[in-house]
Amino acid sequence: MQQAWGPGAVWLGERLPALFGAQDDPAGFEAPAVLAATAKAHAGWRAGRTDRVLEALIPAILEQKVTGKEAWLGWRTLVREFGEPAPGGGAAPTTLWVFPAPEVWRQIPSWAWHKASVDSKRSAAVLRAVEQVDALEAVTYGSAIDAHHRLRTIDGVGIWTAAETCQRALGDPDAVSYRDYHLAKEVVYVFTGEREGTDQQMAQLLLPYAGHRYRVQRLVELSGHKRPRRGPKTTFQDMRLI
Which of 121, 162, 199, 238 is most buried, by the most CB atoms less than 10 A from its CB? Predict the structure, then answer.
C-alpha cells in the first residue's frame, strides 16, 4: 500500500511505477557472457524514470569534471540552503529536502555558488538550463534521441551530461556516459582485461547491444569488477578556500 502527501502527491502516485522501472522493457537483451552472472544476480534491475528533467540535469552539471566528493558537496549545500524541507510534518524524514524551484535557482547569488564549491562555468550552465525549463521538461513526451539533441543545444551540456540526465529523467536504456573519467576504462577492462580503455574502444564493444547500452554500463558498475589502480587518486580542490 502506497501513501503520499503534500503538493504533487497525486502526480507522484501516478508515476511511481515508472520511477521503479515499470516502463523499462529489457526484451531482446542478452547480457555479454562476461556479465552473465551479474545480470542473473540483478535480474530485477530496471531503468527507472523520474520525468523531471531539470532535477536530473542540474546535479549532472554539478558533477562535470570534478570528483564525486566535490559534486555532492555542491549539491547538498545548494539544496539544503535554497530548497525546502519535505512536506509531511513528522511523517517525512528530517533529512529529506525538496529540489529548489526554477525561480529560486535564478536568484542564487555568485557568492553562494562559491560557498558550494561550484565554479562559474558550471553555475552559468545551470542558469542557462533554468531559463529553458519549460522546453526541457517537454522532452519527456518525445523520443530519447530528440531529448539528447535538445539537451545538447544548451551551452555547457555535452554528451556526458545529456546521457546522465536521460538515464535518470527518461530511464533511457541506451544512454551511455561517454567522456566519463573512469567508465571507458572499466568497461574495456571487464570485456578485454586491458587497463587503459578509450571511449572509441568502449563504443565498439557496446555496439552489439545497441538499444541496451546503458543496461550494459550499469551491469559493469554492478559487477564489482575494478581494474587495478596504479596512480594517485584525483585530488579534491575545495574552491571555498580560494
Answer: 162
Are 76 and 155 members of one domain? yes
pLDDT at residue 102, as a whole number: 97
- Shared domain for 152 and 182, answered yes or no, is no
Please tell me whether residues 78 and 147 are part of one structural domain: yes
Angle, nearest 10°, between helix axes 199-206 and 213-223? 110
Sign (positive/negative) of CA torsion 191, 193, 194, 196? Answer: positive
Q: For residues 53 and 147, give the distance between their C-alpha atoms in angstroms, rounded to a whole number.
A: 10
What are the pLDDT digits (tens) for 118-162?
999 999 999 999 999 999 999 999 999 999 999 999 999 999 999
Q: Which residues of 66-81 are buried (b: 16+ CB within 10 A; e: fewer)?
A: beeebbebbbebbbee
The C-alpha angle with vertex 133 and arms to 217 and 124, in degrees rounded to 5, equals 80
User: pLDDT below 50 — which residues of the chain?
Assistant: none
Whether residue 184 sits in one domain with residue 165: no
Enclosing domain of residue 196: 173-224
How many domains, the chain?
A: 2
Buried b (16+ CB within 10 A) or exposed e, 129-163: bbebbeebbebeeeebeebbebbeebebbebbbbb
| pLDDT given for residue 231 in this prediction | 59
71-90 per-position pLDDT tens digit: 999 999 999 999 998 877 66
- Per residue in 168-204, is it b (16+ CB within 10 Å) or e — as a string? bbbbbbbbbbbebeebbbbbbbbbeeeeebebebbee
